[in-house]
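**User:**
Make up any protein.

**Assistant:**
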Amino acid sequence: MIDTTPHPSAIAYLPVEIIREIFLQCLPGPCQLPPTSTEPRLVLTHVCSAWRNVALDMPKLWTDMIVDLQYSKLGVRGHSAISSWLFRSSPCLISLQIHFPAYGSSSRLFENLVLPNLHRYRHLDLRTSGAELLLFLSLPAGLLPDLEDVRIYGGEQPQAVVDLINREQITTFQACPKLHHARLYIDPKAGVDLYRLNLPWAQLSILIFGRIRPIICLDILRECASLQKCILIISRIDDVAIDKLTELSKQPLLLPSLLGLSLALTNHHTLFLTALHLPNLRVFYPIGRWHSFRWSPSSLKSFLRLDRLSLFQIRPMLEDDLLELLRPLPWLTKLHLSRSDLPTSAILQGFGSGVLIPSVTSIFFGPISIEELISTLEDRFMASRAAGTGISMFNFVSSTCVRPSDPGLVPRLEALEAAGMQVEFNPNGGRSGVYVSRLGKKWLGY
């Protein structure tokens, strides 16, 4: 006789703790509010009553949210969704990314949404250029006790914000004992002195400036005793800054804790670098307009413990110059190059045979023909790998470079990979500044 009694599926016997962990792993990222019908958190609540109960009883599932007001208003549905998310996430700490419109004021929304939950923020990302930032920077001390990460994307600020920062005592970030990560994107053209934001500079381990004047940047770095990773985009160095940097280079600023630096400069690259002494730096990734920068051993005289170095978008140099530059870097294992800057074949052969820097095992390289790459790998890298030296990983950064489909090249590439050579292709890279910036952050460990 056939048993027609319905039996629960195997997943019904999973412990609730396992189901909760599965739910967390299903999340692709923060939720955009108001949510769509395909939002993963809502989908999980619509499977069955058991899953709905588990999801609604999981505050951690509802703690990460984005509110974007740039192009549309929230409306009743949006306000209701935000209230639901905040209620369901209680009492956990929350992460909020909120984009205010570039024009007009959303002060009432800021007062109703952001201010009542200040004590619950772990990560706070404000994208505003007006009254909302004015309100935020006017807060008294002690209202953000659990804040770990703050990001402010402000752009060019109205005069009221500039006056507040430059003339008043900012107390918003005082008594933030857990704050260790700050990203500030505020246009310095209006004369904003970012040093006066009074962040707890001494306890920051990660610091990013979207735009900052060079002297103010050095003043801030002087306070950053615990800084480990840093991305700096420095505004143009004028004549006044040149004189100050020249004086500072006589006694460079010592940053012994800094391990990773990504730096963008438009002029006087060497002068700014000589104002810094970074004895323990492991990763250096310059970004932006370095075409006019001529590398020399003196440029890296304090970078002797580098593990990863980028030579992307710099003036051409001879192979002998490169050898002279890299010889004092015995710890170097990863190098980012560009064909437009360096003699491709000679460099590939030199690294492949371990002649230049034996410690280098990974190269990120710019445009080069696939056939030339494979031929060089076959001629040089296979022999060097057999000897236990040379490159083991090759990452292509090129706008035209894709994995080959030519029947004559595919078996040769597969043979190299079978022998232990790792070859990666990034067809969306090359001239893409976005990709280069992301790669820089990846190298720094973001």
The two ends are 62 Å apart (CA to CA). Residues 370-386 form the longest helix (17 residues).
